[in-house]
Amino acid sequence: MHELSIAHSLVEIASEAACQANAKRVEAVTLRLGALSGVVKDALLFSYDIVIEDTPLAGSRLQIEELPVVVYCPDCDVQSTLPGVQQFRCDRCGRPTAQIIQGKELEIISLEYTE
Amino acid sequence: MSTRILDLHQGILDKNDRLAYELRREFEAAGVYVANLVSSPGTGKTAFLERTLSMLIEQGCMAAALVGDLATENDARRLERSGAPVRQIVTAGICHLEANMIASHLDGWRLADFDFLFIENVGNLVCPSSYDLGEALRVVLLSVTEGEDKPLKYPPLFNSADLAVITKIDLAEAVEFDCSATYANIQAVCPGIPVWETSAKTGDGMAAWVEYLKRRKLDWQQAIRSRE
Ligand SMILES: Nc1nc2c(ncn2[C@@H]2O[C@H](COP(=O)(O)OP(=O)(O)OP(=O)(O)O)[C@@H](O)[C@H]2O)c(=O)[nH]1
Ligand SMILES: [Mg+2]
Ligand SMILES: [Zn+2]
C-alpha cells in the first residue's frame, strides 16, 4: 500500500503552498486522480486523514476528482473514454490502441483556504 | 475572513519524476541501458535476472544489478553468483523503489563501464507502477502459476510496461496454463506490447530474450544519436 506515502507527498506540497499563501486555515484540497494512476481513492482518503494531523492542513478535507482513461485511435482520429481500465480500444472501430490521452493524473489542483 | 482558492496544478510525484528524468539523462550519457523488472512476489525476477546476467557476461557484455527488497539481502547474494556487480537496496518496509533510492545506490560505480543495468523492483503488482526510476525499459514478469487474469486485476502496472515476460514456462503443463488467454489479457490492457516466454530453470527462451534485449539496446542508442 503506497497511498500513505502518496498522502505524505501530497500534504508536504500542499502545506508548503498554504504557508506561502499565509493561509490561516485550509478548508479543502482538490486532487485529480486518473484511473491508471495506481492509487486507490478510498485508501488515499483514509491515509489523508491520518497524515494531516499536526500539519497546516489539519481539519481540511480532500476532494478527489476521478478521471476515466481516454485513448486516441490514429486510424479513426477519434478519442474514446473507456468505461474501465481492462480494455484499451477505440469506440468506433474496436481496434486496440495504446495511445493514452488521459488517466495517469495524480495532481493537486487547488487549495481552498481562509486568510 | 474570506475564502480563497489557490491554483496549484502540481503533480504529487513531481519530485520523483524530476529525479528520474535526471537519472535517465545520466544513463543515456553513460550509454548504459537500464531495465526495471516488476512483478508480484515470487514470480521469478531474481532467477530470471541471474540467468540474464550470466548470459550477458558470457557474451562479453558488462552488466550490473540493483535489487530492492523489503528486508533481506538474499537476492543480491543470489545475483552475485553471476559475477556481476550487484547492490542491494533494502527499503525497510517501503513496498516499491523510488528514484532517490536508485540515485543513492550508484555512488562509486562508473556507469560508463556498464552496458546494462538491471533494477529488480520490490515484488508488488500495484505500487511500482507510479514510480519512474529513469529506466529505458520496464519489464513486467508474470509466472504461469499466478493465473491468466493477473493483467486484468492489475492494469496500471501492465499498462505501464514496455515488455512482458512469462516465467516458469517449464511448469505450464503441470498447471494447465492457458497461454492464449494470458496473451489476450496482456494485450487488452497494453495493446502491442511484446511478450516473451522463458524458464530460468531449463533455460528455455532465455537465449532469444537476451538477443532481443541486445537489439532493443541498439535501437535505444540509435534513437539517442538521432536526437542529438
Ligand atoms: N520451475 C521453475 N521455478 C522457478 C523459475 N524461476 C523461479 N523459480 C522458483 O520460484 C521461486 C521464486 O523465485 P525468485 O526468483 O526468488 O522470485 P522473485 O520474483 O525474485 O521473488 P521476490 O524477489 O521475493 O519478489 C523460487 O523458488 C525459484 O526457484 C522457473 O523458471 N521455473
Ligand atoms: Mg527476488
Ligand atoms: Zn478507431
Describe this structure in words.
The complex is a heterodimer of chains A (115) and B (228). By secondary structure, chain A is an alpha+beta fold. Chain A has one domain: hypothetical protein PF0899 fold (2-Layer Sandwich). Chain A has helices at 3-20, 41-51, and strands spanning 25-34, 61-67, 70-73, 78-81, 100-102, 106-114. In chain A, strands 2-1-6 form a three-stranded mixed sheet, with helices on one face. A three-stranded antiparallel sheet of chain A has the order 4-3-5, with no helix packed on it. In chain A, a hairpin with a 4-residue loop joins strand 3 (70-73) and strand 4. The radius of gyration of chain A is 17 Å and the shape is elongated. The model of chain A has no long low-confidence stretch (mean pLDDT 96). By secondary structure, chain B is of the alpha/beta class. Chain B has one domain: Rossmann fold. Helix content of chain B is 38%, strand content 21%. Chain B has eight helices and eight strands, in the order E-H-E-H-E-H-E-H-E-E-H-H-E-H-E-H. Chain B has helices at residues 14-30, 45-58, 74-80, 99-103, 150-153, 155-160, 179-189, 206-227; strands at 3-11, 33-38, 63-69, 86-90, 116-120, 137-143, 163-167, 195-197. In chain B, strands 4-3-5-2-6-7-8 form a seven-stranded parallel sheet. In chain B, helix 2 runs parallel beside helix 3. Chain B is globular, with a radius of gyration of 18 Å. The N and C termini of chain B lie far apart (55 Å). The A-B interface holds A 1-2, 5-6, 9-10, 13-14, 17-18, 21, 23-24, 27, 31, 36-39, 85-89, 96-98, 100, 106-115 and B 1-15, 94-96, 126-127, 129-130, 152, 155-157, 159-160, 187-193. Strand 6 of chain A pairs antiparallel with strand 1 (3-11) of chain B, so a sheet runs across the interface. The structure holds guanosine-5'-triphosphate, magnesium ion (MG) and zinc ion. Residues 39, 41-47, 75, 123, 167-168, 170-171, 199-201 of chain B line the site of guanosine-5'-triphosphate (GTP).
